[in-house]
Amino acid sequence: MTLAALTADATPIAGHRPWPRFVVTESAWRAASEKLAAGEVTLFGLWGDMACVHLALLDEPARDIAILSLDCADGRFPSIGASHPPAVRLERAIQDLFGFEAAGAPDPRPWLDHGRWGARAPLGRPRDDLRPSTYAFLPVEGESLHQIPVGPVHAGIIEPGHFRFTASGDTVVRLEERLGYVHKGIEGLMTGADPDRGAKLAGRTSGDSTVAYAFAFARAAEAALDIEAPPRAQMLRGLMAELERLANHFGDIGAICNDAAFVLMHAHCAVLRERVLRAADACFGHRLMRDIIIPGGVARDIDSAGAAQLREHTHDWRRRFRALVKLYDQTTSLEDRTVATGVLKPALARQFGAGGFVGRASGRAFDVRTALPYPPYDRFVPETALLQQGDVDARVRIRILEADQSLNLIEQIADNLPQGPLSTPITPRAGEGAGVVEGFRGDILIWLRLGASGAIERCHLRDPSWFQWPLLEVAIEGNIVGDFPLCNKSFNCSYSGHDL
Amino acid sequence: MWKFILPAFLLPPLTERRPAFGDRELAELSRRLDKAAHRKLGRSLSIRHVDAGSCNGCELEIHALSNAFYDLERFGLRFVASPRHADVLLVTGPVTKNMREALERTYEVMPAPKWVVAVGDCAIDGGMFGASYAVIGAVSRVVPVDLHIRGCPPRPIQLLEGLLRLLEPNAKVRSAETPG
What we know:
The complex is a heterodimer of chains A (about 500) and B (about 180).
Chain A: H1 2-6, E1 16-17, E2 21-24, H2 26-37, E3 42-48, E4 52-59, E5 64-71, E6 76-78, H3 88-98, E7 101-103, E8 146-150, E9 162-168, E10 171-178, H4 186-190, H5 195-202, H6 210-225, H7 231-259, H8 263-284, E11 293-294, E12 297-298, H9 304-330, H10 332-338, H11 346-352, H12 356-360, H13 368-371, H14 392-415, E13 431-438, E14 443-450, E15 456-462, H15 469-475, H16 484-491, H17 496-499
Parallel strand pairs in A: 1-13, 2-5, 6-7
Antiparallel strand pairs in A: 3-4, 4-5, 8-9, 9-10, 11-12, 13-14, 14-15
Helix pairs in contact in A: 5-6, 6-7, 7-8, 7-14, 7-16, 8-9, 9-14, 14-16
Chain B: H1 2-10, H2 27-32, H3 35-41, E1 45-51, H4 57-64, E2 77-79, E3 88-92, E4 95-96, H5 100-108, E5 115-119, H6 121-125, E6 135-137, E7 147-149, H7 156-167, H8 169-177
Parallel strand pairs in B: 1-2, 1-3, 3-5, 5-7
Antiparallel strand pairs in B: 4-6
């Protein structure tokens, strides 16, 4: 009911599916800001457009979404971040990409723009007065504090980002993140692309979630075109999404243990992950299953032998995985590192609308597959794993439970594959749509508008990491510097998905 | 724990056999690799990886090189934490403008002789991102590249094949000269 009250006076935009979009007045925008600050609705997205800003709101109890759009012709809009911190970085990104000012924003510093693009506001009205490439980190004052700058190039094989630690002895007093290093301008490349190319770009937004991104993009495009993928395609999408989730959970559970110096677990989990990727390769011709989900359906089928083989694999993977879970449970020296380390309090997870295992390990029971079900999860419903502790151990345990669920889902889907066409043909037309999909990391929102020629006019991709990265800064506070890799890996936020 | 350790002695290893050299565009490397430097380094190379703008897909497959199936270290190849310890720089991604300086500085602090391997389609020519305002594109526009490994992302076995070529630069020449 909260969303209905907010949009009572506004008229919905025709042809926006599946959730409505409303053009609202400044007073309704401010009212939404108050509801967000009061915790009555959850921030689900905030992004710029040519002459307006869009605000996606989630009403969790009502399982509903609404998008509010505010005209921004004078280049300003009232800051949501002024009263609701989760919006701050999104507003800084809007400022960098579109040049709109979030009036009253608490942090006017640039975010994605490092002063190196050769233009300012590249997606709005570009200006050539570049920002300085220097960046003012927040000041930290106190006796015997020292700073440790880390990155953008890290010691391991991971994505680039900068972490500025302020420590007192070995204890972290403050962590400040600086991201944007892998900003590729994906939303700029989307404009003018046709939906097929758009799906490829979406699938290259965050490599570990290539299936989830292509899935969300396809759903957004299908909503805009008012078509549906055929039943077999929807089932195959679910199959790939669960294989992707499983591979990531297997790999990361091991990698987290590795960061606590328990290499045995890492070695065995890496083998399990490799087995999943090989099975994906055998079924779909690509280890990460990239470019297989397309708007309208899927580009590739699996044969009945492939489905049967998958069925055998799940049996084997479950047996091996259970033994590993037992090993995790029985190794007290490992639990000594993971329990009570990097605690994220439930109140913060709720305030930021933290998705995925980060939210579910801190008491936020939101999973798109059950809260806003989409095929095939309208038929095959996973149980939502939920814990309250919010420490590294809880995040590992949520992923253990989810991996088990994914194994069940893979079996159920493989057993129930219907026959039929793989895709619905696309006729180019104008339209607007949104797609929300549960990737392994959490909820991915993709919104797009197609022009009359069928080409993309504007596409926004919102990674779950936007609402998880800021929480890592809080979770590490009071922990030792040496536990940062462990905490960081237990969050495993995306750099590329966030930087776009 | 013994349940995991004991079978490891009894069961055969998972490790794949060393890949046969395929017919890929590896000749460019053979030209660049200096025989004298090769003698100095022998069969051991230290690798430093830099993500210069990748989607993280290539990183996943580079990680896979360390699992029991590919076991990179058996060939004398290992990943190191600092570019100051590295012989080879493995670069992924279309180079973004925001990462250019970090890539240049990483390359500069590596001791000579040093080689650069560009991994993935994006690293070769910018891939789908080449036309963006935020992207420089090919790795070779920022640092000199000795070897390209194609793929989106390349499979671990292709990565392994490419890296082994660094250890045996003459193998390609020989196989190219072999008739048939």
